[in-house]
Amino acid sequence: MTPSTPTPDLTTQWKSARRLYPIYFEIAREFVIDVKPLHDLEAANDTPGKEAVEQANQWLDQMDQLILVHQLRQFLQTSSLVDQESIVAMVQHFLAKPTKTEAVRDKIDFLLVQHFSQFAPVGVADAEVDLAYVAHALEPILGQFDLKQPVWLNALDRILEAARRCKSLDELLHGGILDQGRKAKTQAGDLFYLPVALAAFTRFGYLMRRAFFRLMLGDLNLILDGLTELEEKGVETIDCRRAQFSAEEPIMRLRMICQSWKVMFQAEYSSGSPLRMLVDIRASVEHALGRGKADAPVAKAAAPAMTQTAAPKPAAGAPAAKPAINGKPVAKPAAKAAAAAASAGGGKTTAEPVPVPNGEPAPGSEPAEFEISGAPGWDPDATEKKS
User: Fold this and answer.
1) For 13-29, what is the mean pLDDT?
2) 358 FRET partner, CA 20 to 30 A, in 26, 135, 248, 310?
3) Angle between helices 195-232 and 154-164 (to 10 degrees)
4) What percentage of the chain exceeds 90 in pLDDT?
5) Strands 324-325 and 328-329
6) Residue 110: what pLDDT?
7) Which region, left, alpha or beta, applies to residue 238 given φ > 0 means left and ψ of -120 to 50 means alpha?
8) What is the pLDDT of residue 121?
9) Does pLDDT of 270 surpass 80?
10) Cα–Cα distance between 158 and 153 in angstroms, integer?
11) Contact status, residue 106 vs residue 386, Cβ threshold 8 Å
12) Given pLDDT bands bounded at 50, 70 and 90, which one contains residue 9?
């Protein structure tokens, strides 16, 4: 049975609804969700009746069903409309639900990690982020509670240790570690909502994300170094079809894409299409350098793995050529999104990565949860599903 949360009084419910209403309405606008405005909440009436509160709760419940987890995550990580108090109100809103679905659980999980990530100072070491440290940060939401951790939560530490031993993003994404994390969350059942469990899973999500960022930045740097080495050898293009690009993808374009991802991944935290694409680009670069193995379909293709005379470099400021396979443009959404990120502003990134110690994004700007998203362009059942 789900641990009970006291039902707030009408005044508290109304204040919460008024705080969440503009956020939810903006999410609906951004993701083109068809929803009617609620005039009582827009009027900002401070003394509502019971009927008005019930209508507000019904409106929020409807929005909770329409807004998907990845939409909430994307919006909260990129919008200036949401402050710390709004996150607290949103967590309390979900915790007060009498019936908590898997989607509600995932939203609570994300929001708690988002809250903690904004609390944690820059440069805090992993070893410092113990259960007591996290519990202190979550006190405005969970209050004070017994820090004695149940034995079944020890599995989270074993998963974190396995993540720390990973040497590449590919190893993390496809080594079964994420499956173990999802399994731990699912097997927790209603015990997930015990305060000590919520704190433990918040710590787990935060530290998993840090492991992810270390590996992601390491892969990006290895790709960029590999591209530089290829350029020094006079190579201009490489076979990058495994990453949904062309058989003769310009190195200059790959470099711009990787630089743009350094910025993008500080605002969006998901390991859907772009991360799998990043893994495949690294594999393509290593193969071009003679350090890796090609996929079977790519190895049998007629196109060369790398060439010095293929596509010419684009002129400065000109849009990069669209990737093509057998003379036809690639239509994969993920590849098109990556290309758009690279070509925005005349092929230049519009922002520089936020400088932080040890190459990690600052807590206020880095995404808040390690989660597989069902991003378009990839089959979410092929490797990972949403955690």
Assistant:
1) 91
2) 135
3) 10
4) 45
5) antiparallel
6) 94
7) beta
8) 85
9) no
10) 10
11) yes
12) confident
Q: What residue spans define the domains of the chain?
A: 213-359
How buried is residue 4: exposed, middle or buried, by Cβ count under 10 Å (0-12/13-18/19+)? Answer: exposed
Of all residues in the chain, the percent with pLDDT exceeding 70 is 69
Beta-carbon contacts of residue 4 (< 8 Å; ≥ 6 apart): none
Query: Tokens at residue 307, please?
Result: 């060439």
Assess contact for 170 and 331: CB atoms under 8 A: no
For residue range 236-250, what is the model confidence (pLDDT) as tens digits?
Answer: 999 999 988 999 999
Mapped onto helix, strand or coil, the DSSP state of residue 325 is strand
Report the C-alpha gap between 315 and 65 in whole angstroms: 48
Fill in the amino acid letter for 18.
Answer: R
- Report the 10 Å Cβ neighbour count for 173: 21
| 246 closest CA partner among 177, 318, 323 | 323
Residues in the chain: 387
**CA quadruple 340, 343, 345, 349: dihedral, nearest 10:** 90
Residue 155 contacts by C-beta under 8 Å, 6 or more apart in sequence?
A: 180, 184
pLDDT band at 275 (very low <50, low <70, confident <90, very high): confident
Alpha-carbon span 275 to 264, nearest angstrom: 11
SS3 assignment, position 180: helix
